[in-house]
Amino acid sequence: MENRNSHVDSESFRAVLGNYPTGVAVVTGLDPAGEPIGMVVGTFTSVSLEPPLVAFLPMKSSRTFNQLRAASDRFCINILGADQEAICRTLASYGENKFASVPWHASPEGNPIIDGVVAWIDCEYANVVDGGDHYIVLGAVKTMGLERDISPLLFFQRGYGRFSTSSLVLASEREVLQHVRLAELAREEIEAVARELQVGCSVVAAAGSDSIYVAVADHSPEQRGKNRLGVRAPMVPPLGTLFIDEPNTISEEAWLARLGKNGAEAAVRAQKQLERVRQRGWSIALLGDMSAHELEEAVELYSCPHRTPEQERRFLDTVSKMFDQHEPVHIEKTKNYDVLHLSVPVQRSTGETVLVLRLSELPKSLQGVEVDRYLERLQAAAAQVESLL
Q1: Residues 139-185: tens digit of each pLDDT
Q2: Top-level CATH class of 10-163?
Q3: Which of 3.30.950.10, 3.30.450.40, 3.40.605.10, 3.90.180.10 would CATH assign to domain 173-388?
């Protein structure tokens, strides 16, 4: 294992490799007396699908690993959640009986599963290979399970943190604050509209590649007490059409690209929807077969500041199911509609869209002629706000 050509000292090696984030796991087992023991590792990785193999790399000098190996032919990998840093530090510290303050329950193989972990993997030793000052421990997976759908704990540059998806990179606080101040100009108007129509009326602003509710007035009997303030949604087709290609927001090309490599067919539909919105000057989304509660849960999930990529995928899957409910070609006067929301732009004299006014919680089964009436009232409100800009 000796590398005679290397001139890299251990500190430089640690400093450079510390720029690569690793997940944090705890390898657990029972000692000969049946008491839980465990060691924190930042080297856990998957190795093979067929057969299912995982690995971790303990130091050869690790007393805990030597105890684990001597006590049993099996062990359990615990993947820690981002909110379990305190548990990680407890188990990484020196001392005896470290599990005294760490709640756990037994895995199917009898190994400790720390309460609240993201996932656990029961293994048996498949091989232990020499790896310099570490061992490379291969584990044959026996059984496994998910415990919580949350972000994992990460180790990066000698500190702990959590994962955030790229779409969580927000516009600057100053920019968001400017939107909030602009929204205050619309406060009286949205309150008047919401009270008059007995619906929800909100001000929506662009925040990077997301839209965000920056002011809310709700006089809907069904939704009173709930507050969308601060709730955000991604500008991904079919969402966000009124902001596309506006200054400091997402471009049409980038908007369509968010559909991914398999979104060619959807991209054609999205472009047609976007063109309809631009021609009309307003946007409409229908409820379709999905319940308002399902949609609300999906939006709340996306708005969570610590959502996982899987949670984001679930939200986008929900959005894709209602794709065809956005921007219908015609609103017929005598046909009934369940409207999810109506939106109109608030523009500067230059034509730049700076805010969007949105109606929600509209009555069910509205005739097309009634949809027109709600739209006209919202457009009048937007014109009043524009006069104040």
Answers
A1: 999 999 999 988 899 887 777 777 665 544 444 456 667 778 888 89
A2: mainly beta
A3: 3.30.450.40
